[in-house]
Specification:
Layout lengths: L3 H12 L10 H24 L10 E6 L7 H14 L4 E5 L10 E4 H4 L4 H4 L1 H9 L4 E4 L3 H14 L4 E5 L11 E7 L27 E7 L8 H10 L6 E14 L4 H4 L15 E6 L3 H10 L4 E7 L7 H14 L3 E4 L1 H7 L8 E8 L5 H22 L1
Parallel strand pairs: 1-5, 1-6, 2-4, 2-5, 6-7, 7-8, 9-10, 9-11, 11-12
Antiparallel strand pairs: 3-4, 8-12
Length: 388
């Protein structure tokens, strides 16, 4: 019973895109009201039987959701790694490896993990490992186990802080900072309990958050929707900082079509600064629409769009569909995400492949940076006084 919420969320991820349930009509409401009540009951039981969180020797920061996903956790985890490294420290990251095959646990640097493909370690793990070679990643289906692996690692090679990816609902360990992300591109109807909406827990859970961050804002002067601002104010503590995180985007070529001359050359040609021609957009995300909007904002000439489910496992059938669309639409290149490229990179393509990568704008991260600096300073002071 205690694991029921996670099981229901995984089931809902699979079923939500089915044509019968894709709308918000009467059939979905009539079927899911009873299930939503049962989900609430399971949450209550889990809260009764949950163990007391354990405090460990390394500061712990959680990046989490109150909804099922699609809020931009992975770019924020990356931004926190960069902040920790800017202090001259090494970051440890606890990941679930969602969507991978097998249950093998990993504890390794990003450089070491890059030898494994997404099928072994998960697409988000692969994406982060490829970008942050010096960070240490623990991958396990159990957050308690992944944190234990990182704590043991830190006894030998000091880690400055640990980041739990998707840790807001975890009772495994005490968090020094609990960050909750909400998407500015979400809908009011999403904020109902699973499976009626996308809430993992009641909105009152926002009161546990130390910082509430609104993501998926494309401009510094863009405001979150008024209904979302009111919802946050109504269900969170008044003293909890609410910040808006603006996303910046970068287009980067990751695969090109080799010519005869290039195949004989010892040096790789320098990729062009921007793609040319018409793009086929390919993505398997919780919120594909944000990727589409972002591509349009970069003035990408979009000739077609292929949407897949979140954590799509690209096989010969799906890649054949992509190639078929490429030729049918006479697209000049594929535009995808780093998360999708972690699984698409093993396939051969007849056109160049470009990524639209998301970065958190640094100036919108100042509140997080200051809070993290204070936590690290306080922990260092406590550690120093204990040693004496």
């Amino acid at each position: 019973m205690i694991s029921a919420p996670n099981s229901l969320e995984r089931w809902w991820r699979d079923v939500r895109c089915a044509p019968l349930f894709s709308g918000r009509g009467a059939m979905r409401l009539s079927l899911f009201y009873p299930l939503s009540f049962l989900y609430w009951l399971a949450l209550r039981l889990r809260s009764v039987f949950s163990a007391t969180p354990r405090r460990i020797s390394v500061p712990v920061i959680s990046v989490g959701n109150i909804t099922t996903g699609g809020t931009g956790k992975t770019p924020l985890v990356g931004a926190l790694i960069e902040i920790i490294e800017s202090f001259g420290l090494r970051a440890g990251v606890a990941l679930s490896g969602y969507g991978r095959s097998g249950e093998k646990e990993f504890i390794a640097t990003g450089k070491e993990l890059s030898a494994h493909d997404a099928a072994e370690i998960g697409d988000e793990s692969r994406e982060l490992a490829a970008r942050y070679a010096n960070a240490v990643f623990a991958i396990s289906g159990s957050k308690r186990n992944s944190l234990r692996l990182l704590e043991d690692y830190s006894q030998k090679t000091r880690l400055g802080a640990l980041i739990i990816d998707d840790g807001f609902q975890s009772a495994a360990v005490y968090r020094d900072l609990d960050i909750v992300l909400l998407s500015a591109r979400s809908h009011r109807a999403d904020y109902r309990l699973l499976p009626l909406g996308e809430l993992r827990e009641p909105l009152s859970g926002l009161r546990r958050a130390d910082i509430i961050a609104i993501s998926h804002l494309a401009q510094s002067d863009e405001e979150p929707p008024e209904w979302l601002t009111k919802l946050v104010e109504e269900h969170s503590r008044s003293e909890t900082p609410k910040i808006s995180i603006v996303s910046d985007f970068e287009l980067r070529q990751v695969a090109s079509v080799k010519t005869v001359d290039e195949s004989d050359s010892a040096t790789k040609p320098t990729p062009p600064p921007s793609p040319a021609g018409r793009a086929l957009l390919v993505s398997g995300l919780a919120r594909n629409s944000w990727f589409h909007e972002s591509a349009k904002a970069q003035a990408v000439d979009i000739v077609g769009i292929l949407e897949f489910a979140d954590h799509q496992k690209y096989d010969s059938g799906s890649t054949e569909l992509i190639n078929q669309k490429l030729h049918e639409l006479v697209a000049d290149y594929i535009l995808t995400t780093a998360k999708d490229w972690a699984k698409l990179e093993k396939w051969a393509w007849d056109v160049p492949v470009w990524l639209l990568e998301t970065r958190m704008r640094p100036e919108t991260m100042n509140e997080l940076r200051e809070r993290l600096e204070n936590i690290l300073s306080d922990r260092a002071a406590v550690s120093s006084s204990t040693d004496q």
